[in-house]
Amino acid sequence: MSALFPTYPEGLIRPQKGKGSWLWDEQGKRYLDFTSGIGVCQLGHVPEEVKQKVIEQLEQLWHTSNLFHIEPQEQLANELTEISGLHYTFFANSGAEANEAAIKLARRYQQKVKKTKKYQIITFEQSFHGRTLATLTATGQEKVKEGFDPLPTGFISVPYGELDALKEALTEETAAIMLEVIQGEGGVLPADATWLVEIEKLAKENDVLLIIDEVQTGIGRTGEWFGFQHYPIQPDVITIAKGLGSGFPIGAMLGHEKTKEAFSLGSHGSTFGGNFTVTTAGLATIQTMKEKKILEHVQLMGTYLKEQLEKKLSHYPAFIEIRGKGLMLGIEWNKPVVDIIPMAKEQGLLVLQAGPNVVRLLPPLNITIEELNQGIEKIESTIKQWLDKKNVV
């Protein structure tokens, strides 16, 4: 009998070893991993460059708290502001904590810097922002909120992609608009560029902060450092986590120059956030991605993967579309895909769901063309087996 709370389903496999794009179970069976720890292992499992830097740091110092100067934290903050175009960084332990920081920053910016009483955060239906009380309230999915009443006040969700609903929701109490440019958990749904431009315009006209949740889209997943960089917009705040530390738990919130005063001395903090170990991992991850030109590789591999899957799957009547950017893709079908996950596992491939009808693919960003071809073959074989079982040609 397990001593763990049953908050997760039974594990797909019992992984014993990982390297690159592959995981091995306790029987020694090898699996091609198109989950990357839910978009965390950008450079695959146990990347050598990150491993060596972390080992060096572990020999020196692990943790002091933020009452001390942490050199790799400063260096990583500089890297992140350079690649994002923003100006300041706050380090946390997860995406939910990064989003909590963004919510707090928005309220404090409006109340302490702008001297208003604004506090409300507008988010979007089918979004996902975390599991803390504030971030699950911000999330536009009712299933994550069940049983947690009373929820914090100050959040409203409107339909994703609709401008009129957003305009109606804007009031004198609105502090920020918070969104994902590609909704990951909501079904791998990319935003319309015109809609995003209009949102940025509305935010500026109403002196409302624009917060982009880049927890899943950030750190190269879409072929740019951040998902918003595919669009002609510049957010006031972004949040990141997942892919930043190659598996070490780290999150970050980045803010524009104008938000600096909102997070003044003592206004927010974290005991573990940005310690020596995790920021060393983050720094090594970013530097390795730069040295190996990972963004260009993601653009090529993402285009190839999408084209090949469309070629092989689009003739099935149950197929709807493939959407996403870079190596963050969703394959939508006209029926629930829950059976595909274990079937793919039997083929030696690990994949995810994103909503009831979408298979989500998040392979490592440095995956090879040979590994992609193996994955494509396994996906096609799995889909044929799945549809044959359901008597769909």
Notes on the structure:
The protein is α/β, with parallel strands linked by helices. The protein folds into 2 domains: 15-33 and 294-389, Aspartate Aminotransferase, domain 1, CATH 3.90.1150.10; 48-291, Aspartate Aminotransferase, domain 2 (3-Layer(aba) Sandwich). It has 11 helices and 17 strands. It has a 7-stranded mixed sheet with strand order 4-12-11-10-7-5-6, sandwiched between helices. A 4-stranded mixed sheet has the order 1-2-3-15. A hairpin with a 5-residue loop joins strand 8 and strand 9 (189-190). Helix 2 (48-58) runs antiparallel to helix 8, helix 3 (71-84) packs across helix 8 and helix 9 (294-313) packs parallel to helix 11. The protein is globular, with a radius of gyration of 21 Å. The N and C termini lie far apart (43 Å). The mean pLDDT is 97.
The total number of structural domains is 2
SSE pattern = EEEHHHEHEHEHEEEHEEEHHEEHEEEH
CATH fold topology of the largest domain:
Aspartate Aminotransferase, domain 2
Q: Could you tell me how far the N terminus lies from the C terminus, measured between alpha carbons in angstroms?
A: 43 Å
Work out the number of β strands. 17
How do the strands of the widest beta sheet line up side by side? 4-12-11-10-7-5-6
> Overall 3D geometry?
globular
Largest β-sheet summary: 7 strands, mixed
- CATH class wording of the largest domain: Alpha Beta
CATH superfamily of the largest domain: Type I PLP-dependent aspartate aminotransferase-like (Major domain)
Strand residues, percent:
15-25%
The helix fraction, in percent, is: 25-40%
Poorly predicted parts:
none
Write the CATH architecture name of the largest domain.
3-Layer(aba) Sandwich
Give me the secondary-structure category. Answer: alpha/beta
Mean pLDDT: 97
